[in-house]
């Protein structure tokens, strides 16, 4: 299924506006042919292909911008003295705000905006902590993201008699949206610890919030309930469910599961399962008595199953596994992290509470890249 993304015009207004205009032109072209009950003309087909090429180039630029933002943390060694000085000033302002020495920082409705450098460090650390989030397609922007997708199943090919006229089929567009669900994390810090000169308070906050956010996000990416929250891989109705042949899973079932994903998406495919299921698979053998799970000698740790890496998660269901290219899972995580300081609430504990909020959502958009299998027993 070819996916065409319609994105809100915020981060790159001119480029995104042009992109959305192109998608509108494409949709109007399809709708016109659909209304007139005909196929697209040669001129329309040529223009349609031109639009796809233009959108592809714009997408590469948008993706490059998003990757550059995430990789900003890794480029710290290449920062200029001016950039390093700004970072130090941002940290100093941030510390004063947390300790209540100043009401610095730009105040928003829900609190204050964390300096960009510190927000980037939190987002980057979240990516490092969760391999599932790391492999997903991530958009670090605010606002809704709409992804129109062409339904290839709406075009039917069949045998016809000689000289029989073909019946025109209407191509259907569906749309899926990533919304603005607010996710928050809370960390409490002893005021005695905050006042220690030998304690790196900023790094502690970055690590604590990153750990909390990554645990929450990974759970939502797998089993998010949807509708009023993010939608996870195991709960998304668009993901193909491949059933095992019998009451007990065998090696052939895993091969069938793997082969349900098209060849072009096998390169970056992986398995996701719970620890109890992994423990059962450790004993699973093929028809030749060879264990299905093998140590990953390329990296020196972890395991592979049918040649693909296995990722374990405490949040994965104990009775189902997932396989495929995780880039089919789209995630929206805004980089504008908002913070609120709770001094009075934890005063009796001689502590300060720090709340961080961000916009988050996820859905499987390219469902041909992923599958799930319910595993009754191993």
Keywords:
single chain; 378 residues; alpha+beta; phage-related protein like fold; 7-stranded mixed sheet; disordered N terminus
Describe what you observe in this structure.
By secondary structure, this protein is of the alpha+beta class. The protein has a domain at 113-152 and 172-378: phage-related protein like fold. The chain is 35% helix and 23% strand. The protein has 9 helices and 17 strands. The two termini are 33 Å apart. The model is unreliable at 1-13 and 104-112 (pLDDT under 50).
Low confidence ranges: 1-13, 104-112
Which percent bin holds the helix content? Answer: 25-40%
> What spatial form do the alpha-carbon principal axes imply?
globular
Strand and helix order: EHHHEEHHEEEEHHEHEHEEEEEEEE
User: Number of helical runs?
Assistant: 9
Rg from C-alpha positions?
Answer: 25 Å
Main sheet summary: 7 strands, mixed
CATH topology of the domain at 113-152 and 172-378: phage-related protein like fold
Mean pLDDT: 79
Distance between the termini: 33 Å
Please outline what is shown here.
The chain has 378 residues and is of the alpha+beta class. Helix content is 35%, strand content 23%. It is globular.
Layout of strands and helices, then pairs:
Layout: E1 6-7, H1 13-35, H2 42-70, H3 81-98, E2 107-108, E3 111-113, H4 116-129, H5 131-135, E4 137-139, E5 145-151, E6 172-178, E7 181-190, H6 191-194, H7 201-223, E8 240-241, H8 251-259, E9 269-273, H9 275-281, E10 293-295, E11 303-305, E12 308-312, E13 320-325, E14 329-333, E15 338-342, E16 351-364, E17 370-374
Helix pairs in contact: 1-2, 4-7
């Amino acid at each position: 299924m070819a996916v065409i993304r319609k994105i809100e015009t915020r981060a790159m207004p001119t480029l995104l506006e042009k992109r959305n205009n192109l998608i509108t032109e494409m949709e109007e072209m399809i709708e016109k042919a659909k209304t007139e009950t005909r196929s697209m003309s040669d001129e329309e087909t040529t223009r349609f292909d031109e639009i796809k090429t233009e959108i592809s180039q714009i997408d590469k630029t948008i993706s490059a911008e998003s990757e550059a933002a995430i990789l900003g943390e890794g480029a710290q060694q290449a920062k200029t003295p001016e950039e390093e000085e700004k970072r130090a000033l941002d940290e100093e302002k941030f510390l004063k705000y947390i300790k209540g020495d100043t009401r610095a920082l730009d105040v928003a409705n829900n609190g204050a905006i964390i300096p960009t450098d510190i927000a980037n460090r939190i987002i980057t650390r979240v990516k490092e902590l969760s391999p599932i989030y790391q492999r997903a397609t991530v958009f670090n922007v605010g606002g809704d993201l709409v992804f129109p997708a062409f339904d290839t199943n709406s075009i039917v090919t069949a045998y016809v008699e000689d000289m029989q006229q073909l019946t025109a089929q209407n191509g259907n567009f569906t749309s899926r949206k990533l919304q603005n669900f607010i996710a928050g994390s809370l960390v409490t810090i002893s005021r005695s610890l905050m006042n220690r000169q030998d304690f790196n308070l900023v790094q502690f906050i970055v690590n604590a919030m990153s750990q909390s956010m990554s645990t929450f996000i990974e759970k939502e990416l797998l089993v998010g309930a949807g509708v009023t929250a993010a939608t996870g891989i195991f709960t998304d109705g668009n993901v193909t469910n491949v059933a095992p042949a019998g009451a007990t899973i065998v090696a052939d079932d895993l091969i069938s599961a793997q082969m349900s994903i098209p060849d072009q998406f096998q390169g970056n495919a992986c398995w996701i399962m719970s620890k109890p299921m992994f423990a059962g698979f450790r004993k699973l053998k093929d028809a030749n008595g060879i264990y299905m799970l093998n140590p990953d000698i390329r990296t020196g740790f972890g395991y592979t199953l049918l040649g693909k890496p296995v990722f374990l998660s405490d949040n994965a269901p104990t009775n189902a596994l997932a396989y495929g290219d995780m880039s089919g899972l789209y995630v929206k995580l805004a980089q504008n992290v908002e913070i609120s300081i709770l001094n009075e609430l934890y005063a009796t504990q001689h502590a300060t509470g720090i709340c961080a909020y961000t916009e988050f959502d996820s859905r499987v958009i390219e469902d041909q890249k992923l599958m799930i299998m319910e595993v009754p027993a191993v």
